Amino acid sequence: MSGKSKVVFVRGGHRTEVEVLVGTSAMHAATDNLVGGIVGECGGDLSCATCHVFVDPDWFDRLAPAGADERDMLEATSEEPTEFSRLSCQVPCTAETDGIVLHVPESQ
Questions:
Q1: What is the helix (H) or strand (E) element at residue 102, kind and residue range?
Q2: Residue 48 needs a FRET pair 20 to 30 A away by CA distance; which of 16, 36, 37, 81 works?
């Protein structure tokens, strides 16, 4: 895989756009670029739920469905999950997700 992919993080009305290499997780896109509210305590090992995001509805169906482990971890987030909740460590930055908009919970 090569190329770049853009991710837009929105928190408290503030938009932060970052560009990363295709194949990077949205969590690493956030932590590598100091995006507020994405902690990623476990480093992307799907064991902490500190990278919870709400995927913009226009983008949600472009992602593969969450696996069982991710769905279990979403029950431990700081903010009540919704149908658009994902852990950003499980959201890959790809050509198909170039420009994806992810809303970061205020409580995180």
A1: strand 100-103
A2: 16
CA nearest neighbour of 53 among 107, 105, 108, 106: 105
Q: Token pair of 80, please?
A: 């009540």
Model confidence, pTM: 0.94
Cα 90 to Cα 7, 13, 14, 53, 85, distances in angstroms: 14, 24, 23, 11, 11
What is the band of 107 on the pLDDT scale with cuts at 50, 70, 90?
A: confident
Three-state secondary structure of 3-48:
CEEEEEEEECCEEEEEEEECCCEHHHHHHHCCCCCCCCCCCCCCCC
Contact predicate 17/6, CB 8 Å:
yes
- Are residues 35 and 104 in contact, defined by beta-carbon separation less than 8 angstroms? yes
Which amino acid is present at 105?
P
- 11: pLDDT confidence band, cut at 50, 70 and 90? very high
Closest CA to 93 of 16, 27, 12, 11: 27
